[in-house]
Amino acid sequence: MNYKVETIPCLSDNYAFLVTNSKNKKSILVDAPEPEPIKHFLRSKSITLEYIFLTHHHDDHIQGVSDLVNDYNCKVVGALADEYRLPKLDMHVKGNDQIHILDLDFEVFEVPGHTIGHIAFYCEKIGVLFSGDSLMALGCGRLFEGTPAHMWNSLNSLMSLPLSTKIYSGHEYTINNARFCLSIEPDNLKLRDRMEKIELMRSKNIPTIPSLLADELETNTFLRAGKEDIKKSIGLAGSNDLECFTKIRKLKDSF
After folding, report:
1. Most CB atoms within 10 A, among 10, 18, 230, 249?
2. Buried b (16+ CB within 10 A) or exposed e, 172-211
3. What are the pLDDT tens digits along the chain (255 aa)?
């Protein structure tokens, strides 16, 4: 495979991601929290920035766009529905669009919940999903604009991807997310084992992103709202999956 995905820490707990063709050094950046760490990385690897993909409009995902466009004359791809609050877009996309960029095909998912216009980018060829603040490692984004039903439907659409998909989410929230999941599922042995690995990685300042979808399905309590034992543990035995997810999200908001 000629493509490499690299994680660039930004701000206090954000990540940007760079998809680079190792042969020609051309790249796609996913989200731009701030310019300097990204510029430094590009210079140190002699990489050319061709495109920026934006998952949503929040400042901690777009603050670096204008500087990068000025320096690299790169093109910006974002949601048509969010055009009015994103930096100037060169390509407008919507759910189910297929876009061909730098010899890679990406499918666009509409994943409202965290924001109404949130999108995610999936590339089957390299087995990656750039989920922004929708599906996260052991969590999902806080519902600033959308409803629990929006987010639950979004997560369900992403859960159908291949189990080997690597999930690149936008923040290093994994330890806190894991602690919350353990408060709901203390007897989940795979979750406890994952927590140990996460704590070791963070003690060495290693990003916990990406994660595997297979692991998320076994340990991310937000994705497991359909499990009857989880419904019982939060006092919702016999409830529907959305009701369970809604309560899990509410519990996390005050965790």
Report:
1. 10
2. bbbbebbebbbebbeebeebeebbeebeeeeeeeeebbbb
3. 699 999 999 999 999 999 999 999 999 999 999 999 999 999 999 999 999 999 999 999 999 999 999 999 999 999 999 999 999 999 999 999 999 999 999 999 999 999 999 999 999 999 999 999 999 999 999 999 999 999 999 999 999 999 999 999 999 999 999 999 999 999 999 999 999 999 999 999 999 999 999 999 999 999 999 999 999 999 999 999 999 999 999 999 999
Cβ proximity of 3 and 126 under 8 Å: yes
Q: Contact at 8 Å (CB) between 125 and 104?
A: yes
Q: Give residue 176's identity as a one-letter amino acid code.
A: N
Q: Residue 231 corresponds to which amino acid?
A: K
Per domain, the residue ranges of the chain are 3-174+207-217
Give Rg (Cα) of the chain.
Answer: 18
- 95 phi and psi, to 5 degrees? -55, 140
3-174+207-217, superfamily in CATH?
Answer: Ribonuclease Z/Hydroxyacylglutathione hydrolase-like (3.60.15.10)
DSSP code string of 105-147: EEEEEE--SSSTT-EEEEETTTTEEEEETSEETTEE---SSS-
Distances (CA, A) of 197 to 84, 165, 192, 194, 204: 41, 19, 9, 5, 11
Q: What is the separation, in whole angstroms, between the first and last Cα of the chain? A: 42
CB atoms inside a 10 Å sphere around CB 58: 21
d(CA 241, CA 255): 21
Measuring CA to CA, which residue among 143, 135, 140 is closest to residue 161? 135
